[in-house]
Amino acid sequence: MARDRQVDALLKKLLQPTEASLPAADAARDAVQEILRRGADTGIFFAGSKKGVTVSTGLTAQDKEFLRGVSVKPDR
What we know:
By secondary structure, the protein is an all-alpha fold.
């Protein structure tokens, strides 16, 4: 019984940020589409890193899925 409550609490903790992120993704996609409609181009640039921290330069499948979700074609 106690384990069920722990799992329920963790699921609630996961659900809250997930639900909050959905409108943000829609808003980002809408903004990118408006920029493209107005004839401009979009891009995302990543720069800098903390000293001593290794930064991966490749995009994960999740990164690419997010970019496609906001109408940005990831470079190959």
